[in-house]
Amino acid sequence: MASGIEDRDGHVATLEVTPVGAGVQVRGVAPSGELAVICTPARARELAAALALAADEAESAQSADPVTVKARELRRGDVRDGDRAMTVEGVRIDGTTAHVTWKSGAGRSWTQGYGVDADITLRRRG
Question: What are phi and psi of 44, to 5 degrees?
Fold first, then answer.
């Protein structure tokens, strides 16, 4: 995994995560230096959860302005703007209809059909 990673000076860096014996090695390499640590699987899971939470918070903070896309351009993970969170699980195009499978925050799923050119307002892109 190396894309989208930079060191503090903006130079391209790499991050490698590999199993090592009974642990997990996290190794970062950049022009500014290298760091390698080995942690337990439990600690690696904690680190992964913290990274996922930070990524969600960063995405939420990017823009408070909703974005509008055509139904045919929806993709998994897109979140519909509105009172209740609805996340795209999948999209299937059938001629002029986009069949969008949504998942509610409560875990309920359903499929709804839209014209492929229908405007859908999103709170966040997936």
Answer: -65, -40
